[in-house]
Amino acid sequence: MAQHYTARPGLPERELAAALWPLDAWAATSRALLAHIGRAPGPADRFTAYAAVVRHLLADPVLPPRLLPEDWSGADLRAAYEDYQREVTDAVWP
User: Fold this and answer.
1) Count of structural domains, the chain
2) Residue 5 maps to a domain
3) What pLDDT, in 10s, does the model give residues 17-41?
């Protein structure tokens, strides 16, 4: 005879998400990257900074907004990268 079990997390969903992913650390790194790309002086520096942005975005847990901290900077980081992509594309294919 097969047995079935049901489990429910002991934490509210937002706290559970914070326990499963390092959301505060991810957001802090994201804000630091945004500041860094704002200070990057030349094309090579900007390229290097945006390479770090891409690596960081790969670690984004992509959770629904209701599970994210209030100061989540993921959308800002993605927007900055999209602007950079447009900038590079426009420079290559005006």
Assistant:
1) 1
2) no
3) 999 999 999 999 999 999 999 999 9
